[in-house]
Design goal:
The chain is of the alpha+beta class and 215 residues long. It is built from 3 helices and 8 strands, in the order αβββββββααβ. The longest helix has 52 residues, at 2-53. It is rod-shaped and about 75 Å long.
C-alpha cells in the first residue's frame, strides 16, 4: 500500500510541474509579443504626428472667389435726345429723362490664388489682384425725377440700354474712388488672420501681406 501511495504522489508532483511550466511559457510568450508590438505602436504614432506637422492647408484655399467688401451707390442719370437741323435743336423734338438707380458693387479676391510661406517666424502672404466681382442694378430702386418725351424724337431702347451701361460703369468708378478696393484688401487680411490664428500663435509669428499692384 505504501508503494502505491508514493507512486500517486509522484504523479501529482509531475502534474503540478507541468502546469507551472505551461504558465511560465505563456507568460514568456506574452512578454515577447508585447516587446515586438511596442516598436510597431511607437512607429505608427510617430507617423501620425509627422503627418499632422506637415499640414499646410488652412481652409481658405477652397473658398474660391469671395467678396470682402461691397458698396451700395445711388446713381443719377440723364438721358436725352432731340432732332437737329443745321446743328440746331428743332423745337418740340426734345426728349429727356432724369432718373436714378441703386447699384450694388462687390469687390474681393480669388482665394485659390493666394500663396503663403513661413520662415523664421514670419508668414509671408502673397495676395492676387483685388478685383470687382459684380455690379448689379437694383431695378426696385428706380426713381424718376423728370420725364419728358417728344413724339417726334422718342428715346430708343438702344439708347436706353447704353445709358444703363454708362450708369453701371460710373457707379463702379465712384465706388473705387470711395475706397472699395482698399477696404476689400483690409477685410481680406482680417479674414486670413483668423485662418492663420487657428494654426499659429500670432504672438510669436509676424504676418506680412504682399499685394499685387492694380493696373
Amino acid at each position: 500500500m505504501s508503494e502505491k501511495k508514493e507512486k500517486v504522489m509522484v504523479v501529482k508532483k509531475k502534474g503540478i510541474g507541468d502546469a507551472i511550466g505551461k504558465y511560465m511559457t505563456m507568460k514568456f510568450l506574452i512578454v515577447v509579443l508585447i516587446i515586438i508590438a511596442l516598436p510597431i505602436c511607437v512607429f505608427s504614432i510617430k507617423n501620425i504626428v509627422a503627418q499632422d506637422e506637415k499640414t499646410t492647408k488652412l481652409g481658405f484655399e477652397d473658398i474660391g472667389e469671395l467678396a470682402t467688401q461691397e458698396a451700395y451707390c445711388t446713381q443719377v442719370s440723364v438721358t436725352e435726345a432731340s432732332r437737329e437741323l443745321f446743328g440746331m435743336q428743332i423745337p418740340f423734338t426734345q426728349s429727356k429723362y432724369i432718373y436714378s438707380y441703386d447699384v450694388l458693387i462687390k469687390a474681393g479676391f480669388d482665394f485659390q490664388e493666394i500663396e503663403w510661406s513661413e520662415r523664421e517666424h514670419t508668414i509671408l502672404v502673397k495676395m492676387p489682384k483685388v478685383k470687382l466681382l459684380s455690379s448689379e442694378i437694383d431695378v426696385e430702386s428706380f426713381k424718376v425725377y423728370h420725364d419728358e418725351e417728344s413724339i417726334f424724337r422718342p428715346i430708343t431702347l438702344k439708347e436706353n440700354n447704353q445709358a444703363m451701361k454708362k450708369l453701371r460703369k460710373q457707379a463702379e468708378k465712384d465706388a473705387i474712388a470711395n475706397g472699395l478696393l482698399d477696404n476689400a484688401k483690409s477685410n481680406a487680411e482680417v479674414m486670413l488672420k483668423g485662418f492663420f490664428a487657428q494654426e499659429y500663435d500670432l504672438k510669436d509669428y509676424k504676418l506680412v501681406f504682399e499685394h499685387k499692384e492694380e493696373k
